[in-house]
Amino acid sequence: MNLFQNTKTNWKYIIFISLFAVIFSAGALVYQYWWLPKEEANMFQVQKVQYKEDEIAEWKIYRNEQLGFEISYPSDWVIFGTEEEKDSYGGYKYFYVKFGDEKEVEINKERQAGEIKCAVTAGISNNVDNLTVSDWAIKKWGNPEDLELGKIENIKINNLEGIKYEFMSMGLETNILFSKNDKIINITTTFGDCEDLPVIFDQMLSTLKIIN
Predict the structure, then answer these.
(1) Does 22 lie in the same domain as 104?
(2) In a domain, 97, yes or no
(3) Residue 191's domain spans which residues?
(4) Which one of 127, 142, 189, 206 has the largest count of C-beta atoms within 10 Å of its C-beta?
(5) For 161, which DSSP code?
(6) Position 101 in a domain
(7) How far is CA 147 from the centre of its chain?
């Protein structure tokens, strides 16, 4: 009788210890996944930002007098790409420069792959047909009603009148367009995985200047 009771007691201890081991292991895995810091090379995380006016005043300035515009971008961003194409007369058919988060740019260089999530592009294109900004945008991308989440609206930034043209393309692509003589200036970005981009984009737009 005593032997039987001891056997039952031993099984209770074995079951208790086994359950404790399973719970401990699960807890360790949860801790490693949620609380231990991730390696920077494996994940790019953008901190939430809200730049103040005095900080914006210290931003880097991109100025292109030949193309006629100036825009500021965050101090911890870099220019990571430019592209141009000229027409037969030597003028620009289009030109654009890309600005992006320096940390993300460096990580993507190491990986040699991927799109920069926190990025804004400023460009200028010919308007040889002398179209209105809206007609130029519709000629380039099509009628917004035919596009997913397509929308076009008039805007005014720093006394500059233009349009906002949006549609879904690997994220919500937003184009801010202004007319300058026979050119169209376009400040664009794609909202998606960079949660701070809407704030940064708006603040960059507030610094845009057209150079006569």
Answers:
(1) no
(2) yes
(3) 53-210
(4) 189
(5) E
(6) yes
(7) 21
